[in-house]
Design a protein that fits this description.
10 strands; eight-stranded mixed beta sheet; single chain; alpha/beta; two-stranded parallel ribbon
């Protein structure tokens, strides 16, 4: 199996159809509701932060549905690109039939229409939207604890959120951290329990950066800054596997499922069962 890096506009669309709905009154976020909502209430919720493909791609909605089913709580996917997505996903079957030159031409045709979206999705802009969204959830839905899981772009956003006090725990999946600075400064500020889902080969979150992040969190042991953490690296995987795996390879599909299990288990430990 080839482990060549997927491009930022490549990916695989997961099967099935989303079961939740878009909530206009909550900034057009997607809600995968607690399956037990009619008989019990939960004051816990999870927010799922998408990669650059944003809410238009159905993959994060399907992942949210699966988490809601297992955790028995609401799972929200905020529209933090404000109705846009930073880039479009190009189906792999199309890319496989193209020459290298055609792929580069397609990349530029894909990028140019989204220059405004890139500007509108800068971390400072997105972080303000997330802070407002979380405040709205707590005010209107009465959640006492909120966990966050993020993928790629959303993984980086999750790291920043984990230092704000706005969330209570986090799962960070192959974050888009191409350099150790200022990324490590953001990791040093993390103040909630964090679980890391890592690819074996990741040009956005390299093994060296991963090890530096792990060393930073491990170095807090025995101090009042220590937070519970874990790192799991999935062999034979590349960036993006936890949310848009190559469906032609059973190993990647299986790794995606294991990453979802890791995410759910972490929230069961740090969010759902915590008082």
């Amino acid at each position: 199996m080839s482990l060549s890096f997927p491009g930022w506009d490549e990916g695989y669309i997961l099967p099935d159809k989303p079961k939740g709905s878009i909530q206009i009154g909550f900034s057009s976020a997607y809600l995968a509701p607690n399956p037990d909502a009619e008989t019990t209430t939960s004051d816990r919720a999870v927010i799922l932060l998408t990669d650059d493909f944003g809410l238009p791609l159905k993959n994060p909605k399907l992942i949210a549905d699966a988490l809601a089913e297992r955790l028995r709580c609401d799972v929200w996917v905020p529209d933090y690109f404000n109705g846009l997505n930073a880039i479009d996903l190009v189906p792999q079957r199309v890319l496989d039939q193209m020459t290298t030159w055609d792929k580069w031409r397609l990349k530029w045709k894909t990028i140019l229409p989204f220059i405004g979206a890139f500007w509108d999705s800068s971390p400072s802009v997105v972080d303000k939207r997330l802070a407002s969204f979380i405040a709205l959830l707590k005010e209107k839905r009465g959640y006492k604890k909120i966990g966050a899981v993020g993928y790629s772009y959303g993984g980086a956003a999750c790291i920043r959120l984990a230092s704000t006090g706005l969330i209570d725990c986090a799962v960070i999946c192959h974050p888009n951290l191409p350099s150790p600075s200022p990324s490590l400064a953001q990791v040093r500020a993390i103040c909630v329990p964090v679980s890391w889902v890592c690819a074996e080969m990741d040009h956005f979150f390299s093994n060296s950066i991963q090890h530096q992040c792990k060393a930073e969190l491990a170095g807090r042991k025995g101090t009042d800054r220590f937070v519970d953490f874990e790192f799991n690296e999935y062999k034979g995987t590349v960036h993006g596997f936890a949310c848009r795996p190559n469906l032609e390879y059973p190993l990647l599909v299986e790794s995606c499922k294991y990453a979802l299990d890791q995410t759910a288990s972490w929230f069961e430990k740090t969010l759902v069962s915590e008082s």
